[in-house]
Amino acid sequence: MSSTLPSSSNVNLLEMASSVLASAVLASESIRCFAQPHRDTSEDQKNARLKADGSFVTDADFAAQRIITSAVRGVSDRVRILGEENPEGVAKVDDKSLHMMDPNVYERCRQEVYARFHQRPQKTGLSSKAFIGAALPLSTITATKFPEVSFALSEQEENDVVVDASRVCVIIDPLDGTSSYAKGQYDAVSVLIAVNLDFQPYFGDICKPFGCEGVASILGTQCVAVYGGSLIGAGYLAGGDQLQPFKAPPKGSSKDDLPRAVISSSRSKGIVEEVCRHLGSIGLLHPEPMHISGAGEKSLRLVLRRENEALWFFPREGTSLWDIAASDAILRSIGGKVTDKFGRQLDYSKSREKAENLDGIIACSSEQLHSECMRIFQEMKWEDEDD
Q: Is the whole-model pTM more than 0.70?
């Protein structure tokens, strides 16, 4: 068997996933720091301003991307990185604003990722239901005593996870919901990172720097993270339970038991809400879509489904690959599906300059529900006009 340490032209995807998860936690710390008042003034330290395209950017966006990029480069300096913020701006970030990779954070994340991999359902043969609770919670890991998790890989496992770096792309949205962040509205803020293999999402991480009501934080920090993908065969709440596949409500269920659509508040009128309300009128969805800000927050709701959220319907321009790649990876691992408005998989081979999803996105917690929504949407032939 060859060494588990990859050569310079190879990358170990488990090590990359570990660094991605850890760097999201550390980037979250930086994002929270920029939101704090400066010691000499009462103002925060975000330095919010508009980019050429009219969208907001802050110093926290660049600092977070630099933290994540540095962590990725620490695993491999040859993988492709597709980040929302331009590399020139990231390179100019003051090093004083950055946080170094905390060895304890990295090691705990590495322990969990390897544990999930070794216990993945396709290896154990356990059903999703039987696998509940089999995973190792991060909350049981202390800084001084790590559980006995093997980092050794069999020859077959090594062949699965050690790949040529040219096949790998890491897609980064360092601070999703910047407009809300600049205004001090932190519920919509997320860090989104995906590890793509052969232009397909293979591992994704959604991290909420300011936490999520009712969900336990990771590693004693303020942030909440979910992650998953084909790499580990499932999705998880970091430090917690396995994410459960969507289960369709039985026929005749009340409207409160029906899955719900999540849409932006800015789409409260027009085709997006019109289609969602039509799907509600025929009993496929709850009749009232939920108005939610932020791509990361919408994605998180689709994987946690605490209020039956199951569909993110957005059949038009306005999102980019970094908005959806992480949730695409996680949703695939729990039986969900992401496509454009024509039902086609997203093209993850595009450059940063062409990363916009021109044909929109239809993201769903269930492949079956996705198919039904797509069928009805296409049959009705709505005009995709501006709101």
A: yes
Query: CA-to-CA distance for 144 and 122, rounded, in angstroms?
Result: 32
pLDDT tens for each residue of the chain, 387 residues long: 344 444 469 999 999 999 999 999 999 999 999 998 876 666 778 988 888 777 889 999 999 999 999 999 999 999 999 999 877 666 666 654 555 567 788 888 999 999 999 988 754 333 333 333 333 444 443 333 445 688 989 999 999 999 999 999 999 999 999 999 999 999 999 999 999 999 999 999 999 999 998 888 887 788 999 999 999 999 999 988 899 999 888 887 888 899 999 998 775 567 888 889 899 999 999 999 999 999 999 999 999 999 999 999 999 999 999 999 999 999 999 999 999 999 999 999 999 999 999 999 999 999 999 999 999 988 876 655 444
Q: How far is CA 77 from the centre of its chain?
A: 23
What is the DSSP track for 248-268? PPPTT--GGGS-EEEE-GGGS
Cβ–Cβ < 8 Å for 77, 195: no
To the nearest 10°, report the CA torsion of 77, 300, 124, 4.
10
Distance separating alpha carbons of residues 244 and 335, to the nearest angstrom: 9
Domains of the chain: 10-237 (3.30.540.10), 255-380 (3.40.190.80)
Nearest to 282 by CA among 258, 262, 305: 258
Count the neighbouring beta carbons within 10 Å of the beta carbon of residue 178: 24
How many Å is the Cα radius of gyration of the chain? Answer: 20
How far apart are alpha carbons 55 and 229 in whole angstroms?
Answer: 30
> Which two three-digit tokens encode residue 208?
């909420």
Q: 11 and 162 in contact (C-beta within 8 Å)?
A: yes
Mode of pairing for the β-strands spanning 234-237 and 260-263:
unpaired
